Amino acid sequence: MTDIRNITKTGISRRRALAGLGAGASLVAMPWIARAADDIIRIGFPTPLTGPFAAEAKDQVKSAELAVKQFNDKGGINGRKIELLVRDDKLNGGEAATRTLELIEKDKVHAVVGSLSSAVQLAVNEVTRARGIIYVSISQSDTINEVKDFSKYTFHEALNPHMTAGAVARHSFKKGSKVAHLVADYAYGHEMLRGFKRAQAEIGAETVGEILHPFGAADYSTFMPRLRSMRPDFLCISNFGRDQANSIKQAVDFGLKQQAKIVVPVILHNQRLAVGPEVFEGVVGGANYYWGLESQLPSAKAFNDAYRAANGGAIPTDYGAYGYTGLSSLLMAMQVAGGTDTDKVIAALEALKYDVAKGPQSYRKCDHQSVQSVLVLESLKKADMKNDADLFKVVANEAASEKVLRSCTELGFPA
Amino acid sequence: MNAPLLAVEDIGVRFGGFVALQGVTTAFHPGRVTSIIGPNGAGKSTLFNVLSGVLTPSSGSIRFKGQDLKGTRQHEFVHRGIARSYQITNIFPDLTVHENVRVAAQASRSRYNIWTNRNRFPELDARADSALEAVGLVAKRDEIAKYLAHGQQRALEIAIALISDPELLLLDEPTAGMGPEETKEMVALLEKLATERTILLVEHKMKMILGLSDRILVLHHGRLIADGSPRDIQTDPEVRRVYLGQNDGYA
Amino acid sequence: MTSPALAEPLPSSVRKPGRVKSLMTTYRVPLSIIALCLLPWLLPSKALAVNVLIYGVVAVGYNLLFGYTGLLSFGHAAFVGAGAYITGIAIGQFGVPWYAAVLLGVLGGGLLAFAIGALSTRTRGIYFSMVTLALAQLVYYVALQASSWTGGENGLRGFTVNKINLLGYDINFLDPVNKYYVLMAFAALALWVVSRILNSPFGAAIEAIRENERRARTCGYNVERTKLLSFTLSGTICALGGTMSALHLAFVPLDSLHYHASGMIVMMTLLGGASSFFGPFVGALVFLVMEDVFSLWTSHWQIIVGSIFVLFVLFLPKGIWGTFLARFVR
Amino acid sequence: MDTELILMQLFSGVALGAILVLTALGLSIIFGMLGVVNFAHGALFMVGAYAGLWVASLTGSFWWGLLVAPVMIGLFGMLIEYFLIRPLYGRSIDDPLLLTFGLSYVLVEGVRIVFGTDGIPFPTPSALTGVLDLGVGFFPIYRIFVVGVVFVVVLLLWLGLEKTRFGLIVRAGARDPTMMRVLGVDISKVWLLVFGLGVGLASLGGVLSGPMRSVNPEMGSLVLAEAFVVTVIGGLGSLLGSIIAGLAVGIVISMTALFAPEMATIVMFALMALVLLIRPQGLFGKLA
What is the maximum span of chain B, computed from C-alpha positions, in angstroms? Predict the structure, then answer.
């Protein structure tokens, strides 16, 4: 088990915490330990090291550390070293907001990267927006693209449900396909559903029914008879994490896989490992990254190799890769801007073209969404797996294009 | 014959199929000590619980000072003038002796006052002290109640009951678990109290009952089988058969 | 230095508080305020200090019910959350000034506490805990469903208070020190109110119910009504904590309504000591600092926090502050 | 809506109800006999699932996991009772609740440390995979098997409590522990066994749930809520109440899932609130 101590090699934050404990215990009033000299660039990194996505979070940290190390090895930014301050947001928006406040007020970070849930990223966004701190968000949401939550300081490195659901739909459905939807009844679920239906309308695939299920449900058996009775060609399960694992597992138990192809907007590497190959066999889903891209893409190969070298041969995973691409884009922009001046870095990010792991990427001007490729993956049968990490077949690699995003006007930005 | 303080009319209590009290009709007049006796399970405690509002009878009515107590909730009984003690000592164990009595005194007023300092009610303190005086616990004023001797705890419970200055005092085995010395003190206390108010007593110690009571009621299987002066009861053949015949006087 | 004789609690049947203790009781509010003034300079961060204020208020309010009335509620997160949501909605969707939004949050949370209290105080013992838990979960699911008001799972946002106007002066509310001291005024107010409630005749009545519900009823207390009043007051104080948290974070997470959040309040209160006025505040402080510090060391901090809690239930039921008072203060 | 679908939905509801009964039994028995609300019930359910998986992977057979894990975790439950719960008897009734609440944190985090945070695959035993045609629709064979197991467990419990000397002692002990002590029965031994039994039932539920739900450290959190709802509706401590309430909740959820699926969770809590308002002690409970 890795813990933060192993991850955060700099160790500065830990020493600081220890000193704090000592001071608190002896009740000696003293001004808080002077912060590190200003020639270091500090990046805050809140991520849910505890909770159901801890494995993804740890992968994110490892990837982010890799990006930092690569820049530091090249001499930093204008000679300034970069320090990554990892904090546990516990997958809770309130916790994340507190950690972000601490990072900004106490640690004086120059930018924040991170988060792994829609709610957490919106909480961090709220804090950084009010304080003019650059934030590169690396978790999925359509909400954050919309003008209501827009912050000129926030850049959205992750895919959004509109993109992944759309890509999966385009590469699975045919004209006349019958599609049934099982959707988690919360914003993220509705966003995924909207993405699917938008693509269905273009393709001409028909919706034969949709069932909203309560967010966080453990048993889906009561939805299955109705889903079966819809006789779909495709069953779209628009939920995430544990909900996805439970609902796919039970859909398979009820024999829905014999009847329909199961597709999901996002398929996770670690989730597939946790649930097993039998259940996931043949399930199609979208992803931002898969290590198997290395056979097609030099940048993926370079990222994988560096990651393997730094982490004892382990391969990077999907949400983990966001840590690398997100941090790399920020650091590249700082390099262009020659430092941490907020306006200059924003301008640099808006103009940036980068390809660090998954082909060309750039941030769209209006909503700061990263325009990037979307992968469509299909889970392999156990017998077809060449090794333990060989989980998916790449069905499609949809090239980066603004066309797959909702338009700026639709999001509420002035045309 | 003056009007009865408390009149009980055809009271019945059933728990499911079990009949705990049946057709009990009687009246209690002011200024007397009445004892209720009967074997275990005869319905003595049930009757007490009905008279103090703990139980609502399945049938029948209770009138106190001419008013029907139907629908009166348990906590209101004390405000009407009926106070009681319990068979198993029932005090506030972690409060001091004085706090025990004082909090009982406060129940009659300023119950929901959340803003005034509780020390700004000197008359409550005075009342509490006089109640402690009455039961002889002044010396123990600041001790925590649970550390008192058993007899003192029983006395404290009576002080708690007395603080509302009730017209009718229901005492459920006030000498339960006491040695002869403590019993003697309690009897003296009860005699003193009997001069000022009406007392209803449940007891097992026959000698004490005979000495203390003006009147004795005998319950058996939930029915009132005898009612009279101690002398009448001692000679009642029915009572001798069901009660005294099986007991040596100390249950 | 304490003498050996004082280190062990004297087996005493008499309650005559010593000079130090009675001074500490009399001046508990001013002493608390002095401690609160120093707090931000002793803790690793101002944000943490504000959280201690918030959860301190919540725990002290909760303890009115748990420690003083003897009712274990597992649903107080609902009132904290209600306070926060109402404040956030009032500012963000209706443009209500911040102070009025705070007032609305406190009243709204209090009203919810009255409603849930009216239903739950009819039950006793362990049922009470279960009913409060169930009703609070119901509030959680309602907030999840009413996403057009609450933001649903995404949380409520869009109500950042940048500056506030106090007596004609504009104060930068994003500055952590300003924010701390403004919110501290609310915390001090809450502590003062709770202290007065505990000193009042009503304070004696709830203690009597905690000590012996049957006896209290026999003494003439309307136990249900007294419990309901205590529940409502306690929920109102917790709602104030919620509004403070809304102002602090400018975000209300849905998780703030979950029964895990209620459990955290219980843990804090017990850790500090439910038998004393300031104990819950100490509990909140220790809990949050522990979490802050341990979570920097290891992602498995929950096993430490859980174990400490188990040990406290077993061996130190009076909590940190309660034990400290019993052992060292006379 | 056609009749077939409604019948099928009714059947799903009963099957779900049976699973809910299973998750609630352990909680109900421990409360009924010891008066302890075991907040670690969900965590022990989860630990049971992991233990079952662990035994199954050692022996290569699901059936060994199903048999051995509940006994193993039941014994572990006895240790908990002996070392952690026992010192709390005689203190406030809230103390065991609070202790087990803390314990659940320790158990969940402990499993995260040993087995990782992500969860692990728990495949359905090959003999029980597939679906069965019920005439009105298809249903997984494994779920039907679980319903059968629940039936057997309930039957055994009923026989054990009603027809054996031990059952007599347990029932009498629940009513009047002091009396049992007077009669020379070592009541603390009975409590130890009952706690072990309750925890064993929780972990049996965990093992059986493994192939239906994903196995992960947080799986117990939902189960705890479900078990609470079922036991509280049925009446804390009433075995019959838990069974009837479990089935009723299952059917209500299932019917809600047909007509207003997004309300399928909230309806459970609403039902509980409703029952508590009308009958605070639950359908079959006695007033405290």
Answer: 62
Tell me how long chain A is. Answer: 415
Instruction: Name the 3-class secondary structure at D44.
Output: helix
Is residue D149 included in any domain, yes or no? Answer: yes
Return all residues near A246 (Cβ < 8 A) that are at least 6 apart: A217, A218, A219, A220, D213, D214
Q: Would D271 be classed as within a structural domain?
A: yes
How far is A150 from chain D, CA to nearest CA, in Å?
Answer: 30
Rounded CA gap, D221 and C77, in Å? Answer: 17
User: % helix / strand / coil in chain B, to the nearest 5?
Assistant: 40, 25, 35
Architecture of the domain delimited by A162-287+374-404: 3-Layer(aba) Sandwich (3.40)
**In the predicted structure, residue C8 carries a pLDDT above the cut 60:** no
CB atoms within 10 A of CB B195: 7
| CA atoms of A321 and A302, how far apart (whole Å) | 13
Contact A249/D213, CB-based, under 8 Å?
yes
C153·A215 Cβ contact <8 A: yes
Q: Angle C125-145/C77-94 helices, nearest 10 degrees?
A: 20
Q: Regarding beta strands B82-84 and B168-172, do their DSSP bridges make them parallel or antiparallel, or are they unpaired?
A: parallel
Superfamily of the domain at A40-159+296-371: Response regulator (3.40.50.2300)
What is the number of alpha carbons within 13 Å of residue A335 lying toward its C-beta? Answer: 16
Q: Which domain holds residue D197?
A: 3-278
D284 within a domain of the structure (yes/no) = no
The complex's ipTM works out to: 0.89
D288 assigned to some structural domain: no
Structure tokens given for C27: 């001046």
Contact A106 C296 (CB under 8 A): no
pLDDT > 50? residue D288 = no
D222 touching chain C per CB within 8 A: no
d(CA C126, CA C73): 10
Of the candidates B77, B136, B117, B124, the one whose C-alpha atom is nearest the C-alpha of residue B99 is: B124
| CATH number of the CATH domain containing D96 | 1.10.3470
Q: What is the pTM of this model?
A: 0.91
Tell me the per-residue pLDDT of B151-163, one tens digit each, with 9 for 90 and over: 999 999 999 999 9
**Residue B231: helix, strand or coil by DSSP?**
helix
Task: Give the orientation angle of helix A118-131 with respect to helix C223-249, to 10 degrees.
Answer: 60
Q: How confident is the model at residue A7 (pLDDT cuts 50, 70, 90)?
A: very low
| Per-domain boundaries in chain A | 40-159+296-371, 162-287+374-404
Q: Which of A106-110, B78-82, D181-185 has the lowest mean pLDDT?
A: D181-185
Q: What is the DSSP letter of A406?
A: P
CB of B159 closer than 8 Å to CB of B152: no
C250 contacts A29? CB cut-off 8 A: no
Check: CB of residue A73 under 8 Å from CB of residue A63. no
> Minimal Cα–Cα distance from D25 to chain C, Å?
17
Q: Which two tokens stand for residue A234?
A: 């495709």
pLDDT digits (tens, 9 = 90+) for A262-279: 999 999 999 999 999 999
Residue with tokens 């059933």: B14
What pLDDT does residue D188 have?
A: 85
User: Which of A47, A221, A272 should one mutate to test binding to chain D, selecting the residue with the greatest count of D CBs within 10 A?
Assistant: A221
State the DSSP code for B139. G
The chain-wide mean pLDDT, for chain C, equals 91
Domain count, chain D: 1
Give the percent of chain B with pLDDT over 70.
95
Mutate to test the interface with D, among C71, C121, C130, C144 (most CBs of D within 10 A): C130
| Residue A247 CA neighbour count, 13 Å, CB half | 28
Q: Per 3-state DSSP, what percentage of chain D is helix, strand, and coil (rounded to 5)?
A: 75, 5, 20
What's the full length of chain B, in residues? Answer: 251
